[in-house]
Amino acid sequence: MKKSLLASALAALTLAAAPAAQAATTSSFLFLSPAPAPTDMPSPTDMTSPTDMPSPTDMTSPGATASPVGPGCASLPTSGPGSAASMATEPVGTALAANPELSSLAKAVDAAGLTETLNSAKDITVFAPTNAAFDKIPKEELDTIMGDKDKLTKILQNHVVEGRKAPADLTAGPLTTLGGGTLTVTGSGEDYTVGDAKILCGNLQTSNATVYLVDSVLLPGAEASATPSESAS
């Protein structure tokens, strides 16, 4: 009788333990199974860069794609000081000083104390007389001008106008200089004249200005680019 009761108790315990073991096994498999990846995450192919961001080639400086115009452009150095590529990286005062054909102008700008003024200016156009242009002025008269800072400053200001002027802008009307005078430009294509001075090569870009090389000095109070003795007569 005791053995029968003991056997019945063991059987009952075995049957009760089976579902618990099965549940434990199932729970362990559920715990170890990896969680599925979220279905709303973008795939790598969807994570493209924004299409409205400018490429490096779009972020160019003003005037970087402008082409020089004028019969004298062919004589410009192809590289180094005085070349279009070199001028484009520098402010205008520094660019003029580095150009071998503009050493007389650079000397005048320095004597007037205008180098930093030109370098700090924003968006201007400079008509830059070459060395040959200064050579047209008799030496004694040029020495007198160079020794008179106020007069020299006035003359140099007569070569600067506000705004970057492309060739097509030059003939739109008289240009008002920083010295308060006016300059009239005529011509088209590769042939332009400012006053009586020929533009040898223009539309040259610096970091803050557009430059036109001219063959005569432009004097205040006269459209003509005469020497001081001619303008007084």
UniProtKB/TrEMBL annotation:
Q: Where is the composition biased (Polar residues)?
A: 45-64
| Ranges where the record places region Disordered | 35-87
Q: Name one Pfam family in it.
A: Fasciclin
SUPFAM superfamilies hit by this protein:
FAS1 domain
- Per UniProt, which keywords does this protein have? Signal
The FAS1 domain covers which part of the protein? 89-218
Signal peptide (UniProt feature, chain positions):
1-23
Q: Which InterPro entries match?
A: Adhesion/Biosynth-related, FAS1_dom_sf, FAS1_domain
Q: This chain belongs to which protein, by name? A: Surface protein with fasciclin (FAS1) repeats
| Species the sequence originates in | Streptosporangium lutulentum
